[in-house]
Design a protein that fits this description.
mainly alpha, Helix Hairpins, 4 helices, 0% strand, flat, phospholipid biosynthesis, DAGK, DAGK_sf
Length: 123
């Protein structure tokens, strides 16, 4: 029988790879860093105000949605730049659509945040 460390290595490898991608996004992508700061502000507010578990869950889901879409947007833009380094209106349209998906998630998260936090702020 193999030692436990060797058995667990395949389990942890995907987390290591994901961590490298996350670190790259933090270092290289300004918009991801901005959204990460916003997420930390939301996390702080989640502990500051007496939110219900459902409200906390919605906040967590919205943060994950925005950050995840931003990672996908960055990945898509990088792939498109790799395959078509010259300016191409078709590529520009795809990039704009991808950025629009992130914008829609941000607007939805902002609306959810207002609905959740505004009653606590107005008390």
């Amino acid at each position: 029988m193999q030692p436990l460390k060797k058995q667990l290595k395949p389990f942890f490898k995907p987390f290591q790879i994901s961590g490298k991608g996350l670190w790259w996004a933090i270092k290289e992508e300004q918009s991801f860093r901005i959204q990460l700061v916003a997420a930390f502000c939301v996390i702080f507010a989640m502990f500051w105000f007496p939110l219900t578990n459902a409200e906390r869950a919605i906040c967590c889901l919205m943060m994950a949605l925005v950050l995840g879409l931003e990672l996908l947007n960055s990945q898509l833009e990088g792939m498109l730049d790799m395959f078509q380094p010259c300016r191409d209106p078709r590529i520009r349209k795809i990039k704009d659509l991808s950025a629009s998906a992130v914008l829609m998630a941000c607007l939805g998260a902002a609306a959810a945040g207002l609905l959740i936090f505004l009653p606590y702020l107005l008390k």
